[in-house]
Amino acid sequence: MKKIGLTGGIGVGKTFVAELFHQMGIPVFNADVEAKKCMVEDEKLMIAVQLAFGKNIYVNGILQKKELAKIVFNNDVALAKLNTLVHPVVKQKFEDWCKAKTAKLVIKEAAILFESEANLGLDAVICVSATETLRIARIQKRDESSVEDIKSRMNKQMPQAEKEKLADFVIVNNGKKLLLTQLIKLLKEME
After folding, report:
1. What is the value of pTM for the model shown?
2. Could you tell me the pLDDT band of residue 143, with boundaries at 50, 70 and 90?
């Protein structure tokens, strides 16, 4: 089984590309969605998060997402701590998920694939790319954020150009190049 990472900065269209892979019959593991699930389903992780960020981070077993976001998105040390708690759990979930699959190729979609070292142990990494202007427009349409807020979030991520350099393949999602053609070519190169 080949394990392929799929990443890219906010607004590049990773999830759309992942959905295309899914429609082509390739299993896709969404690490970001899985991380959120683990935060509310994995009891050991929930206890560790409470110990790190206080008992009030969960109220009646419900994660107080806004409170946690206030803590970690304004404090790099706290964010790093949260990541060290969550990433090993998600990594194990991915390994268990892979064992249950019979496909020759699977995709692991993750926004912070390189930053979390989730690329280690993968056979290749695909980075989805789009211009900053297009990315901002997509994010504004999706969640009505201000340009300043979007740029602030972009600046907290690894630069898109750096992700592209680290990746084995780059998919251009700018509305000019056909995505399906790029994916088919890419899959042939990976055979």
Report:
1. 0.90
2. confident
